[in-house]
Amino acid sequence: MDFQLTDEQRALKDVVHDFVVREVRSRARHTDEASEFNWPAMRKMGPLGLLGLEVPEEYGGADLDAISVAIVIEELGWGCGSTALAIAAHNGLGLGPIVAYGSEEQKRRWLPQLISGEGKLACLSLTEPGAGSDLKDGVRTRAVADGDSWVIDGAKMWMTNASISDLMVVLCRTGERGSHALSHILVPSDTPGVIIGPPEKKMGLHGSPTHAVTFDGARVPRENLLGVEGRGLAQTLATLDSGRIGIGALALGLAQAAYEEALKYAQEREAFGQPIANFQAIQWMLADAATEIEAARLMVYKAAWLKGLKQPYSTMASMAKLFATEVSERVCRNAIQIHGGYGYSSEFEVERMYRDTRLMTIGEGTSEIQRMVIARHILQ
Q: What predicted TM-score, i.e. pTM, was given to this entire model?
């Protein structure tokens, strides 16, 4: 068993880290305070391959292995939670289903455009007012075949990237109830009848826009069906398995950044005539953070490794997502504690990091859902 990154992976990590320092971390405060997506960085990501991480080279993508993808998302998370979430959702949730299930025509039409950085991104549309974790029976958005078109009516919530995307992958009901009644349909964001609501006012991740979206008689061609009709639920669950590795990596990046800020502060801040890093209470928080981050990284990488080997990885992805996101919340919370009153001020980055990481135990399957997935596996 080899725990070393390959030469290519180390080189990728260095290149992405340098880019994040220049283009992402440097704008993180502005991104948060202005609630503004980092378009300048996104435009530069296209030529670097960061907008097509798992897209095959024949469509212009980087075609990275799963561990390399996790490395990239972790580095982006280290720089800015908002930017990382938007790019992770674009790659994993928006492009992932097209790469996995799209026809050759769909791939050639959409992938080169969406990974170029010249237009907008892609997004996945799942959650509804009455359907979050309960997709099988909760989805009410319906697509009805009408001649050579699908006509879509319904409402979606919490759609990451809705206003900064050119294409939505929409989970719709195309049959009656049950696991074979749902399908994915590709819906261009400028389709008449697609109504994107105002951005949600959130606790954190202010630079990653989230919206409610209404479909009012939105009409798209029948060939926009993605994959097999009636296989939308299975396709969604497979997409979420992969996405959970990404969220785990993103949370890991936030935890690493908060830990570094806390370590630096503890070494510089003095109390009672000495750096607070000399006090055991501070040392234990730092030691716990360093240990848990290392363990979380190993779990995220193992899930990615299994994915790359095309072995079953659903349970490991849930374990990695559960552990990494809860570690991130603890590390960010304790980073604030180490900063004391300053940690509660927006002048210090740990305040933003804590607000950003708070979503990680909720999005793409709550911690409770992850525990259900894990328990189902170990009890079968």
A: 0.95
